[in-house]
Known about the structure:
By secondary structure, the protein is an alpha/beta fold. The chain folds into two domains: 7-240, P-loop containing nucleotide triphosphate hydrolases (Rossmann fold, 3-Layer(aba) Sandwich), CATH 3.40.50; 261-337 and 423-508, 3-Layer(aba) Sandwich (Rossmann fold), CATH 3.40.50.300. The protein is 32% helix and 26% strand. A six-stranded mixed beta sheet has the order 6-9-10-3-11-12, sandwiched between helices. It has a six-stranded mixed beta sheet with strand order 18-21-22-15-23-24. The longest helix has 16 residues, at 176-191. The protein is globular, with a radius of gyration of 24 Å.
Amino acid sequence: MSHTPIIEMRKISKRFGQVQANDTVDFTLQRGEIHAIVGENGAGKSTLMKILYGLYQPDSGEIYIDGKSVKITSPRRAMRLGLGMIQQHFTLIPTFTAIQNIILAKEPRKFATLVDYQSAETKIKKLADQLGFDVPLNTPIESLPIGSHQHTEILKVLYHGAEILIMDEPTAVLVPQEIDGLFDCLRGLKKDGNSIIIITHKLDEVMAIADSVTVMRQGKAVATCAISDTAPHQLAEQMLGEAVSHSPIERKEIEQENPILHLADVTIKTHTGKVLLDCINLDVFPGEIVGIAGVEGNGQTELIEVVTGLRKVQDGIITLNGDSMVNATPAKFREKGIVHLPADRHRHGISLDSRIDENLIVGQHKRKVFCKNGILNPENIRRFSMNALDKYQIQVGDISHPLKTLSGGNQQKVVVARELSGGQTVIIAAHPTRGLDIHAADFVHSRLLQARNRGKSVVLVSSELDELLKLSDRIAVMYNGKIADVVKTDETDRQALGKLMLGISDLDG
């Protein structure tokens, strides 16, 4: 029996400007194993896998597949070699059906010109049945829940012939029940001889699903071992290069009289009459964190857009400190003290082509400390930026570089640093720690709790139920555009929240 690794990366190095993203990294994947890669933001995990998938070219080093040296010059070349990558931000076309997305660029033909959807559907349904997936293949992706998006991505890479799957943060947007289903799928793929690489920050999930784990720190692979030979605290210490310490922040009891943010019967409909928000009633008081839970696509995004001025309502009341904010502009909401950590940082939070320091002050650039008589003060901007970089441990080459030169996690840190540095009254935080490492996530958590203890209000939307349970005073669960229930954190748990998120009542079992 051959023990030749299916993937071997030797001495891989990659530099972006002054940043050494990968520094002589060795990585080995055995056939039929699930191998996790963990590390802080900017540790080089995604860069290494993008090199393997042909999205980047290494400055030096070699890649072997089944013991043979290969040059992976593009994703197309990677796919021909049996590699498939499912990125954190799905790459599906919303208006295409699931089957159209799956077969894109590999459409079976009949009569030389027509797409043979029947044969494609037969093949895909066979794959789906093997994996336990139930994806409505002829439904547009935009109409399907997020779990079906991921199933579609997996079916797509398998349909295109992938035997090696690379998955970047695969559970980031899934509820517990969907995570269990995904792990069952991965175990089934492994049993069928597939090999899987998972990039993740969730150490408990690493322990649950992986066979082996590689820890990266500052561009280097500092440790590789079998899961049976390690533990979460050991992995965390190897990721950080030091012992992990958590400093819990005491929750202050704050007298709650009148809500600072009040929503009554808020309703949103599309131009076709489809109801997106259905009579939403919610009060958020000073000195509390209200969590918003729900499977993506059940109204959380629309709710956030309503309370930040990004979407108009057809009916209902919205007040902030007693003042009506119905259909106010985003600038008006910001002027009144609402800040927004957006879920989609690329669309609503940053400008990838602008400088790092410019991104750190945008929205605050008219403050006197940054601007006088319409002229920006570069020294004050630089001082503020360097302080933010240090406080949030944002790894950059130079603050004058474009933001797109940073890793995804460091881009998120820029947004968090900017939004939590001002005189906010209400913090709307949508997935604020998605993609962040342990240190950064703990820091964001502490800043949100500190704001709460100072009497600020926080609305926290997260797909991380542990995060919601850790931070929230109350949790509102959304399902099908409605608030299914509002529960106190100390009176619920992950499984109960998961049931509400899927529209399952206790009577349903």
